[in-house]
Recover the amino acids of this structure.
């Protein structure tokens, strides 16, 4: 009933502001994401990029402006929040797997308790996703027994098992050893190509160049520049973007 | 001995000079500083005094100890000089003879420990009486322990006045626990039973067992032919009561403690400041108009005049409430409950339970002393348990909450499925520690007149046939407490070690 | 940029039913909680009032006979009518309940403060012993700790009181370990105690002066060190100057402010203190008073001779001047006997009747007493030297110990019990605290060339303390709360006396409010003090 007909726009942010006490973390973000679009957000640390994607599923509360996800207005209404969270999957920098549950239980937990699927169906779906991220044989191990890259892939499978329309990635490779980054990026690439709407905060420029439809540069709580990856990397318009790019590319 | 002989041979056969410098040794170990020399002199004096006194008291044993001491020193020194340590001499060197002070302390302590053990052995065995018949025991001449009194009172110490013909009910309760306990050890450990029906059945039986044991021990009603009712105030006692109280307290305080801990940490939006202030100021004005003038008129002293202005304290309370709890009543209530209960002695809580519960309940409502004490213990224990659980909750990373939120779990599901299972697992050792504390604290019911293990021990000294026999009973129950606590401590240590290396 | 600001139907964004609004839900939950809590409290209060009605209005009776809540505490001014075994401040059964509770509170404070200090000392020693490199020492400490931790405190108290202290020998055969002036008997423990003379205040002023000037010297030398860059060993100089001032103060306060004196008949011919010695030498016909023991053993003198020759002294009970005189006589090997009276005029009477040769008291009082004597002119007053502090040693006279301090069996049991028990817990905390300091820290200190004591004092201890303080705080709190177990052995602490008061007056609620309030405040004070200290060392750490 609260669905708002907005055709192709799956995420609409209008003038979103957020303060932590006196600190103005988000200064009026305007952004529209189309269904199936892959967006990579980059920016220096503390620029508000993580805060921004966390406001989309209400891990952080925005204080001004409007966020509409899949036609649902993100408000103080508990039902809307629950609906949006069901449609939005999230992958964290620190994986945040549940250490007291096995991999399979991690993945089936939400489908069983939120989507109310039967255990058998949930496990069937979970195994499908675990196969897709390439670790079906680890299903009965505990997260602590897996490597970082494997854990992150479980986290992706856990988010996907809810069959979300949108996937949020909050620096998914930052806590990983270099040799494990690739296995996670491969999964993300795979997802990007199969039509998911993706918002990813990442420092992996190769990934951005390869699969992103749009690259957004955050600084000081604002969107400084957004463009297609080709244009963005070869022909940045803004001074701050140029400076940032030169710093990370020379690194 | 063999090693010493071998070493002597090596020492003699060796041609090269041994690198042992006597004056250097003295300088390093004796004359390094004046206070070291002084200390060694005092210690030597004490050593000689103790040795002489023990030589007088027990010549043979002391002489043997002295000889062993000298010989083992000789062996260590020899092995040290020739640098040919065996396992034994190395251990001796490192643990008993690693300095002059320690060498002397070793002798003093060995002699004193032997003297103590001899005295205790004489008291508890050689000169002791094990005669359980008081009349025969009275004829016997013995100077040591009167264990007969303890043995004769064994049933009292265990269950006190539980009806003799109903003893089978205690055995049945024990059997139930054992029957459930033995498979549990296996089934709860094994991964393959994680979602099995056996495990859920077992859990169900465990949850049911307190009710069964309650009916076994108290009975159903007076007319029941199988399980006639007994009065716990009279029939429950001894070790049985000690165990009942401690288990009841920990089991009942568990849900209360978890709720209090969650309440104290709750971050739900509080009552908004404007609402708090409106209510507070309303009450203040109301109090100043309707309560203060009559009180002021009736006041007999300055302090009572000041007390008449009590409504002025309401805004202060409101301010503190907003300042420290942001209007969160749940957190305020939990915090105050926890801190007040933890701030007062257990005995005052028990006294409140005994004397004040009846005053707080509807007139004419009678409850047995045993139930009052059980409730008092549970309420007391809940505050401490809440603090332990809070420690566990604090150890859960923020990411776990966020992951649960991002998956769309409700708050209740989040705590039930994600947060509490992890937090409670962390605090199991602390809860076992708290259980040990409760097990020991149960002895306080002696002061409010119930007959737990300690109070039963006290009654022995008052029995005409065993008048004044106290020490033996105290030693016996101390052993029970010691074993109970030590076993649980050991269990919690192992648990801690396992949780430490396990899944985290 | 049209796509960045899509048009939204405004009407839908603002209508959230309040039962789904997360902001309202929280407040609703709070209000529901308040309502439930208020209902519960109302229920309890109503029951209480109904029960109190049944108990009658005597609970709130006023002095004029009416009944009102205002008079809930009026009964506290009535006579307590029970005796208290141990009264650190004066108390009679005819004093009020307030006074009785006050006495009891002082007893609780006494046990708590002494207990905390002694348990810390014992716990620290046992904790260090736990880490000793001597296998026997560390295992003995472990057994002690385990025994304390695994048995109930109440059992330990019962054992200590009934099976150790009460079965000690009677007072005539008191145990004296290692010939130290400490006596254990059924009637308690007698230990030496300091007695403070009037001049103690003067000496204290010197001590304060010494601290100030040592601090000043410390700062001055510190500045000089900074200027010259040379170490001047300022610790040693400050200490030496402090000891100098304190030492001078000891003599000055003793000789200048002496206020005590003895009165003797002129016939005794005493001009100065040394004459006493000469008189005694004459009486015993000895060349040196140190020979008494020798003369006794070779039979030239008998104990009767000495008893007959001993100076007979009259004094007021528990007076500082008596301790001052007798310890000087003891130092000079002069035999004496003391006759003590409750009041000074009784002592003077005894002196006037010739029951003793010497009356000891403060100068001014003696002068007044001499005025009162009929033959005042026949007596001389002789000032005696005074030191600020004298140690009074217990001495068995008849069926009682005189002098020193006495711990009653009850006080001894609760104090020793609490110290042993808490010491066991503190030992574990200290051990864990020291072990928590990484080995690398000690190695680094040794690598820097710090001495062992410097390593402990500067590196290990400050870091260990940070780990130790929080758990030790809760042990101190436990000790304070456990002191209520004194009730089991009838030591009159706050709880025991409150319990008696409740039984006698029947006002359970009023007294329980006072008791719980007191213990809560005690807990708050202890944790506030240690939190303050903890913050301080935490700051030093940074």
């Amino acid at each position: 009933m609260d669905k708002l007909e907005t055709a192709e726009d799956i995420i609409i942010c209008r003038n979103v502001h957020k303060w932590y006490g006196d600190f103005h973390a988000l200064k009026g973000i305007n952004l529209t994401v189309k269904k199936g679009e892959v967006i990579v957000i980059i920016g220096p640390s503390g620029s508000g990029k993580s805060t921004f994607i966390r406001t989309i599923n209400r891990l952080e509360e925005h204080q001004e402006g409007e966020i509409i996800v899949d036609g649902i207005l993100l408000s103080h209404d508990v039902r809307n929040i629950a609906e949006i969270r069901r449609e939005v999957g999230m992958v964290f920098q620190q994986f945040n797997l549940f250490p007291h549950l096995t991999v399979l239980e991690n993945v089936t937990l939400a489908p069983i308790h939120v989507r109310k699927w039967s255990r058998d169906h949930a496990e069937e779906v979970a195994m499908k996703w675990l196969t897709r991220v390439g670790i079906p044989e680890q299903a009965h191990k505990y997260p602590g027994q897996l490597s970082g890259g494997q854990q992150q892939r479980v986290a992706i499978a856990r988010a996907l098992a809810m069959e979300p329309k949108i996937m949020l990635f909050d620096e998914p490779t930052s806590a990983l050893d270099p040799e494990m980054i690739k296995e996670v990026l491969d999964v993300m690439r795979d997802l990007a190509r199969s039509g998911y709407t993706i918002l990813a905060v990442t420092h992996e420029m190769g990934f951005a160049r390869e699969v992103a439809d749009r690259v957004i540069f955050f600084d000081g709580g604002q969107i400084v520049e957004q463009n297609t990856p080709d244009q963005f990397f070869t022909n940045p318009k803004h001074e701050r973007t140029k400076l940032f790019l030169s710093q990370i590319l020379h690194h | 001995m063999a090693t010493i002989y071998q070493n002597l041979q090596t020492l003699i056969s060796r041609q090269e000079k041994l690198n042992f410098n006597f004056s250097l040794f003295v300088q390093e170990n004796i004359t390094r500083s004046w206070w070291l020399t002084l200390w060694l002199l005092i210690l030597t004096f004490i050593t000689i005094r103790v040795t002489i006194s023990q030589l007088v008291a027990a010549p043979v044993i002391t002489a043997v100890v002295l000889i062993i001491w000298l010989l083992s020193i000789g062996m260590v020194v020899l092995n040290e000089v020739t640098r040919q340590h065996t396992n034994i001499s190395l251990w001796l060197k490192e643990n008993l003879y690693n300095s002059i002070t320690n060498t002397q302390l070793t002798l003093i302590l060995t002699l004193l420990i032997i003297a103590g053990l001899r005295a205790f052995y004489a008291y508890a065995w050689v000169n002791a009486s094990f005669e359980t018949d008081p009349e025969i025991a009275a004829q016997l001449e013995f100077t040591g322990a009167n264990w007969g009194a303890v043995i004769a009172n064994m049933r009292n110490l265990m269950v006190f006045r539980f009806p003799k013909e109903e003893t089978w009910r205690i055995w049945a309760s024990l059997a139930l626990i054992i029957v459930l306990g033995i498979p549990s050890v296996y089934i709860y450990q094994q991964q393959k039973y994680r979602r099995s029906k056996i495990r859920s059945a077992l859990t169900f039986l465990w949850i049911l067992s307190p009710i069964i044991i309650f009916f076994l021990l108290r009975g159903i009603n007076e007319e029941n032919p199988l399980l006639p009712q007994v009065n716990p105030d009279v029939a429950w006692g001894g070790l049985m009561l000690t165990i009942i109280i401690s288990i009841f307290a920990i089991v009942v305080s568990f849900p209360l403690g978890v709720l209090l801990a969650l309440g104290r940490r709750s971050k739900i939006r509080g009552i908004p400041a404007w609402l708090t202030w409106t209510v507070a100021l309303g009450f203040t004005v109301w109090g100043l108009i309707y309560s203060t003038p009559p009180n002021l008129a009736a006041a007999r002293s300055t302090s009572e005049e000041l007390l008449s202005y009590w409504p002025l304290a309401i805004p202060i309370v409101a301010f503190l409430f907003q300042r420290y709890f942001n209007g969160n009543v749940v957190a305020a209530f939990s915090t105050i409950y926890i801190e007040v209960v933890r701030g007062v002695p257990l005995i005052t809580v028990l006294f409140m339970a005994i004397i004040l519960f009846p005053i707080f309940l509807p007139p004419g409502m009678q409850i047995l002393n045993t139930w009052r004490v059980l409730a008092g213990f549970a309420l007391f224990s809940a505050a401490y348990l809440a603090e332990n659980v809070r420690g566990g909750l604090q150890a859960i990373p923020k990411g776990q909450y966020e992951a649960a939120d991002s998956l769309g779990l409700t708050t209740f599901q989040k705590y039930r499925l994600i947060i509490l299972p992890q937090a409670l697992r962390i605090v199991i050792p602390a809860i076992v520690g708290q259980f040990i504390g409760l097990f020991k604290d149960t002895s306080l019911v002696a002061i409010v007149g119930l007959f737990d293990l300690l109070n039963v021990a006290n009654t022995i000294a008052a029995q005409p046939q065993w008048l004044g026999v106290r020490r033996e009973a105290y030693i016996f129950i101390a052993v029970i407490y010691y074993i109970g606590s030590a076993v649980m401590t050991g269990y919690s240590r192992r648990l801690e070690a396992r949780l430490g290396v396990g899944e985290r | 940029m049209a796509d960045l600001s899509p048009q939204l139907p405004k009407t839908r964004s603002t209508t959230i039913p309040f039962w789904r609004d997360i902001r309202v839900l929280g407040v609703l939950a709070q209000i529901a909680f308040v309502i439930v809590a208020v209902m519960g409290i109302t229920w309890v209060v109503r029951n209480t009032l109904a029960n109190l009605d049944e108990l009658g209005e005597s609970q709130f009776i006023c002095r004029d006979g009416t009944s009102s809540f205002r008079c809930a505490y009026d009964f506290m001014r009535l006579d307590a009518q029970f005796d208290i075994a141990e009264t650190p401040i004066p108390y009679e059964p005819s004093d009020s309940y307030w006074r009785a509770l006050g006495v009891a509170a002082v007893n609780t404070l006494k046990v708590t403060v002494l207990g905390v200090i002694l348990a810390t000392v014992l716990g620290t020693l046992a904790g260090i012993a736990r880490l000793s490199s001597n296998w026997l020492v560390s295992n003995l400490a472990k057994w002690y700790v385990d025994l304390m931790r695994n048995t109930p405190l109440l059992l330990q108290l019962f054992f200590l009181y009934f099976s150790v202290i009460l079965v000690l020998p009677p007072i005539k055969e008191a145990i004296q370990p290692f010939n130290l002036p400490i006596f254990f008997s059924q009637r308690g423990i007698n230990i030496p105690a300091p007695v403070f003379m009037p001049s103690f205040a003067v000496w204290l002023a010197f001590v304060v002066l010494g601290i100030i000037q040592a601090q000043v010297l410390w700062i001055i030398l510190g500045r000089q060190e900074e200027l010259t860059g040379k170490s001047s060993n300022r610790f040693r100089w400050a200490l030496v100057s402090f000891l100098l001032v304190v030492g001078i103060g000891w003599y000055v306060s003793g000789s200048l402010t002496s206020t005590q004196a003895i009165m003797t008949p002129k016939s005794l011919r005493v001009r100065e203190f040394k004459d006493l010695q000469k008189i005694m030498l004459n009486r015993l016909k000895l060349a040196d008073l140190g020979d008494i023991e020798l003369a006794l053993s070779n039979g030239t003198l008998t104990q009767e001779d000495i008893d007959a020759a001993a100076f007979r002294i009259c004094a007021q009970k528990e007076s500082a001047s008596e301790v001052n005189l007798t310890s000087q006589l003891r130092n000079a090997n002069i035999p004496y006997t003391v006759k003590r009276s409750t009041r000074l005029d009784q002592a003077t009477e005894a002196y006037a009747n010739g029951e003793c040769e010497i009356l000891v008291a403060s100068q001014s009082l003696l002068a007044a007493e001499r005025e009162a004597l009929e033959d005042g002119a026949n007596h001389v007053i002789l000032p005696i030297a005074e030191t600020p502090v004298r140690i009074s040693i217990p001495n068995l006279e008849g069926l009682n110990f005189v002098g020193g301090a006495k711990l009653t069996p009850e006080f001894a049991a609760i104090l020793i019990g609490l110290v042993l028990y808490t010491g066991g817990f503190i030992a574990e905390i200290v051990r864990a605290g020291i072990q928590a300091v990484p080995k690398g820290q000690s190695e680094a200190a040794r690598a820097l060339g710090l001495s062992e004591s410097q390593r402990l004092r500067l590196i290990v201890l400050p870091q260990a303390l940070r780990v130790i303080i929080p758990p030790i705080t809760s042990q101190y709190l436990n000790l304070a709360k456990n002191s209520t177990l004194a009730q089991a052995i009838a030591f009159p602490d706050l709880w025991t006396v409150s319990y008696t008061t409740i039984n006698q007056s029947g006002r359970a609620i009023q007294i329980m409010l006072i008791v719980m309030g007191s213990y809560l405040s005690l807990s708050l004070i202890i944790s506030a003090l240690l939190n303050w200290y903890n913050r301080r060392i935490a700051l030093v750490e940074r």
